[in-house]
Write a structure and sequence with these properties.
The chain has 331 residues and is an alpha/beta fold. It is built from 16 helices and 10 strands.
Amino acid sequence: MRNPDEDLMVRASWLYYAHGLGQEEVANRLGVSRTKVTRLLSSARDEGIVKISVDHDMTETLALSDWIARTYNLRECLITPLQQDSDTSTELTDNLARQSVGMVAADYIARHLKNIGPATVGIGSGRTIAEMIQCFPTVRKPNMKVVSLLGSPRRDNGTSAYLMASNFAQVTAAEAYPLPAPILTSSAHIARTLETDEAIRNALEMGRGSDFNIISCAHFAPGNTYCEMIGVHDTEKEALDHAGVVCEIAGVFLTENGALADIDLNERMIGVGLENLIAANNIILAATPDKALALQAILLSGIASTIIIDHSVAEILVRNAPKIAALKKQK
């Protein structure tokens, strides 16, 4: 288990000494006070982390974070430290990755919340978001509103946006505004009709005007369980596959180049929509290697502002950078 205070000390040192930012700028980037930054830098020097350069096992990860943020035009990229676990179990490795990304996201978002006033936070679905909530520190924000960005699936495995909004509001003492609607309807007409309901309309408007969003991405494959959960039939799976869908995010299906897939399922979904996601401040969580293709589509779509990812996902982004650049030129 890593020490969040030590990691924060290294991040402050990296920004101050390697990037040349002032203490006020470092404080703003980390979401802490300038006094806190002064203490962190002093401690880093006292403990020998800062000598002539930043000397710590996180520095390589921080350099990689900087490269990805620059390459993909992101506000920030946070990468979990490289796991040194010899266990080859994919399930165990994936669970550890979700926990690591959840811990980093919890620390990052908690620090941000401590330094802002009243806010509206949009939230998506997924196991990594559930992990983030599970390890969220005590931060009371009674003046905060938490709204789900998309409707609920037919079968809930405990990670729906509806539940995530309620759970995150509970741990932060905030107000929850779950979207009281299905994520997928049987027709576009029904979806638009439901959106005129006052409670659904108000929740959607709140989500479209959020201060920032916390979202996880789902990689689409015809056999994955997500389709079963939201009620996608076999013929519709074939249509998704034929349209080149690789990603679902907040109820939106995207193709490999980050474009909105030309399928009626996108018209039948209830959520804030792609246009509003692109305009928003989004923190995207991606923990396992199978999410890398979905994350690439998100990066090309312009949805991501900040990404918090596992080291394995970062390695794939680096390896696929030329391919992603080529796809971007084609858009």
